[in-house]
Amino acid sequence: MRTACCPGTYDPVTNGHLDIVARASKAFDRVIVAVLINPAKQPLFTLEERLAMLKEATVGMPSVEIDAFSGLLVDYARRREVTAIVKGLRAVSDFDYELQMAQMNSSLSGIETVFVPTSPEYSFLASSLVKEVATYGGDVSGLVPGFVLERLSERLAHQA
């Protein structure tokens, strides 16, 4: 069985993320969307909230499962019998960083990374940008699923 892992923070999940996951699910038998637990980051949403939003967003993708991990991605990937790491690339600047990570992951574990270019309509999209625009009252509908938009609005209203 060919198993892909799509790692990330997903704070929050965007339509760009979902596009990459959906495309990976067509190329692999199983796709694990793995939410990184990173103590160095201060996410807007808790781990449980991010996992719940991802589960809701991928409900129509039967070969996709949602999980969380901490530590090295390659250790997690080995435990889960992952055959490839899938990363979306928006721009050349993403490639520079992701290539280094892919080469390190390959040297540590032999697990290859597959780069998937983002669809043009999502080439500018990042969770951090969505949060920033939403914080200042900008319209991010169409960039995230509707239920994520609602939760984002609620969370930012509570922080105001």
Structure in words:
The structure is a single chain. The protein is α/β, with parallel strands linked by helices and 160 residues long. It contains six helices and five strands; from the N terminus they run βαβαβαβαβαα. The chain has a five-stranded parallel beta sheet with strand order 3-2-1-4-5, with helices on both faces. The mean pLDDT is 94.
Overall mean pLDDT = 94
Q: How much helical structure, as a percent, in the residues?
A: 40-55%
Low-confidence residue ranges: none
Distance between the termini: 47 Å
Shape category: globular
Largest sheet: 5 strands, parallel
Oligomer: single chain
Beta content comes to: 15-25%
Order of helices and strands: EHEHEHEHEHH
Specify the structural class: alpha/beta
Give the beta-strand count: 5
Number of helices: 6
* Lateral arrangement of strands in the main beta sheet: 3-2-1-4-5
Radius of gyration of CA atoms, rounded to a whole number:
15 Å
Q: How do you describe this structure in short?
A:
The chain is an alpha/beta fold.
Describe the structure using short key phrases.
5-stranded parallel beta sheet; 160 residues; 45% helix; alpha/beta
List the helices and strands and how they pair.
Blueprint lengths: L2 E6 L6 H13 L2 E7 L10 H11 L6 E6 L3 H7 L4 E6 L2 H18 L2 E6 L9 H9 L10 H14 L1
Helix pairs in contact: 3-4
